[in-house]
Amino acid sequence: MNKIHKIEIQSGAAFKLKKGDILKVIDPEGEQVSDMVLFNAKDLREKISSGKTLDFEENLLISKGNFLWSNRSQKMMKILEDTNGRNDFLLAPCSPETFQIMYDNQNYHPSCFENLIRNLSPFGIQPDDIPTAFNIFMNVQFFENGKLSVEAPTSKAGDYVSFQAQMDLVVGLTACSAEDSNNGSFKPIHYSISPSEK
Amino acid sequence: MNKIHKIEIQSGAAFKLKKGDILKVIDPEGEQVSDMVLFNAKDLREKISSGKTLDFEENLLISKGNFLWSNRSQKMMKILEDTNGRNDFLLAPCSPETFQIMYDNQNYHPSCFENLIRNLSPFGIQPDDIPTAFNIFMNVQFFENGKLSVEAPTSKAGDYVSFQAQMDLVVGLTACSAEDSNNGSFKPIHYSISPSEK
């Protein structure tokens, strides 16, 4: 049984994975988004790319069987399982400006961007290095006219997505801080790491 | 009458704009895509972000009236006119690997990525700095199941998109090199710059 790591509400974590390791990201209570960013542990300038992933996978909806690709056109992770089946790879992590501009909230508000950089900065990652995240459990609906709508996640308590690292990685992971993305309440995110069997 | 600059087939250009300048990107023959990337001329670490733009504009289809946003949540350009009305902001610029992986072409092939970096490197921009481009005239259809399909551009000879710079910018622009994006043939791209009226 692998240890369950807990990310508290509106916070984040960062850690390394070795090639072959399996990361399981769990929504323990349901309806909670987790933003994930990836960096090549051996060269942090290589990182997850939504544009490359949507291009190579030829799909907006990235789930079981798809790969997450880097800006250098390399496979970073393979999605092994996805018990929920709805994730987003369109929208940037919520940031302080998200709440100022979209929510008209001029006061301090926690954000995925802040939680990513707080946890990733010890690895040498700077704020401008944070790319568009793979937003696990995030339910962004799109319509023929292009309109986007952020809806409540369809994930139930215990749903999970598991990923296998295709290279040595630095991973940033959050329990998302945005009201609209999480049906109005904030819950934790759990994760576990299974070492590769060599 | 502003000077018309010509980007030859399967090539690119890079130039500076001052805040307020108007850039007009023209498809002179029709059915030709132009990839555009933007950097803050005063701090190149700030650059165009698909994730921030799709988030703030709440739409996959970015056209007249929309803004192009940076990774720092600042407005970089406003789209003033769009006579065609179909652009893409999902897919990364075609790169050498695009042709190896998606087209199974192991030989040399020109690419937008190469043409962007060749023209932007004199400004101090490195390969890993190239973000997902705003793909002018690119026609990527998306379906309810998420499937993406690159179709012939709907642009006719003389169609154009005009943009007003919201900050001082370094711009990279191409005449796209990918067969599928341009209905099988390669054409030039034209552009003009109107200085801001101060």
From TrEMBL, chains A, B:
InterPro entries membership: DUF1989
Chain ranges of the DUF1989 domain: 6-170
PANTHER family on file: RE64534P (PTHR31527)
Annotated protein name in UniProt: DUF1989 domain-containing protein
Organism: Mesonia maritima
UniProt lineage: Bacteria, Pseudomonadati, Bacteroidota, Flavobacteriia, Flavobacteriales
